[in-house]
Amino acid sequence: MRYVIAEINYGGRVTDRIDIRLIVGVLKKYMHIDIMKCDFPYSEDGVYYNPEALELDKIQETLAKLPLEDNPDIFGMHSNALITF
């Protein structure tokens, strides 16, 4: 399934087998059954998580709490990635 979504998302433009492996590895972090749980943590620091309720005002509250600059952890990278960036 991850291969199909990676292929659809990038439309066959990613042809290098190592790049495909990277995309599938990143998708593996976000595409599994646990992602459907409330408060599923997308990052180790707990900043990014599923909102408990799906009402618009609750989702807006959750989005308002997010930082303006993303931590590299959300993308599966070490915080030292900020130094390179």
Question: What is the topology?
Answer:
Blueprint: H1 2-10, H2 17-30, H3 56-65, H4 81-84
Task: Describe, in plain words, how this protein is organized in 3D.
It is a single chain. With 85 residues, the chain is an all-alpha fold. It folds into two domains: 1-31, no CATH class; 39-85, no CATH class. The protein is built from four helices and no strands. The radius of gyration is 15 Å and the shape is globular. It starts with a helix and ends with a helix. The model has no long low-confidence stretch (mean pLDDT 79).
Rg, rounded, reads: 15 Å
Distance between the termini: 31 Å
Beta-strand residue fraction: under 5%
- Overall number of strands: 0
The percentage helix is: 40-55%
